[in-house]
């Protein structure tokens, strides 16, 4: 009996030593504990700093720009500085996606969709999505017309809202931004009084606030769902995703019931027709992506990523304006000088409004929107900056550090749109600015996002004076920590400007 107990304890000790031992030449970082890894250190830092990206900033100060840690059974490497973030994004072996519990739960335990897949599945999805979205307007005149139509409707809606008092700017962009995507994606748009879509947009905000870039504690220690399903967040996670799946499933059913025989009307039609006509795929070497589950998760990916980031970007930009109203008159002066009061802004005016564009470029750098981006995964063993990073390590890009790197940005804590203007006041590109990433995983919705940001922003300033609400506190620039930084509730006063048309 004594020998049995001794061998059992010895085995457990060896096991704990093995799981706590760092791989040879792994990047430096906090110590690893059995089962939970570096979670206590990260938790304390996050509690101290208030945000995950600031916790990683502290780790970078302590251990250098390449930090290694372990959360649960997963190895992580967090990469900081502008130079190294760009280098990592351009490293092919870092183009995988995490395979953890959270990232698979959202897609029925499988590799589905475009956001969290890799290899053949990802490349097929990306090729199909880009090709079809271009057919339905992405980057074309059709898309320009759709965005301009939504901007016009949005301005009219704001006119009605502003008559009632200060406007809730933290949610006001939700539906018009979604409509800019949904027309190409599902062939229709939502009305502003649609209670059902308002409810699902509330769920979207909830999902992004209650989950983080790393997948949360349920991804590090998935066994907790059996022990403390409520406290671990598992029940809430399932509830929100079931609502999202249900909403998108209904949209797909509407298309299935009225599927054209030949010409697709939108992306969902095109995917369903590929499913229907799969006979020509029988001899393909790669596994087909065309099944209903893949369509549902592709819808989920585009619905979440395609609308939430642009919505929050606009909300945070106007929160900044609410605290820095001196920029309002300056930007309106450019609009008036270039367009006059008789013409509405259009997407053709982008190059004519360098102050507007430089302001948006600096806002993307300065404001905390998606400070850790979307997590990557090493698909092979990688030698990076003198360290050996094993296959299946989750790679976190600290975009916040890239945007505040003093080596490439002078006085990064200051808001200076002039960074993006040359000596003649013309817009200039800056290779240090990477709001949509670089490399193969660069955001596929970049064109639509840029157009929507510019036109909605310029249109509001053209038609309205923007000022703080006398009945509410000033907007906060530090939002809720989560998968992105979500704006906290705030209100602004929008006063119609006089026009001659």
UniProtKB/TrEMBL annotation:
Residues 1-16 form the signal peptide. The lineage of its organism: Eukaryota, Metazoa, Ecdysozoa, Arthropoda, Hexapoda. InterPro entries: Cyt_P450 (IPR001128), Cyt_P450_CS (IPR017972), Cyt_P450_E_grp-I (IPR002401), Cyt_P450_sf (IPR036396), Cytochrome_P450_fam2 (IPR050182). Belongs to the cytochrome P450 family. It comes from the Eukaryota. The keyword Signal applies. One of its GO terms (molecular function) is monooxygenase activity. This is Cytochrome P450. Its cofactor is heme. Heme binds at residue 443. Keywords: Heme, Iron, Metal-binding, Monooxygenase, Oxidoreductase, Signal. The keyword Oxidoreductase applies. SUPFAM superfamilies: Cytochrome P450.
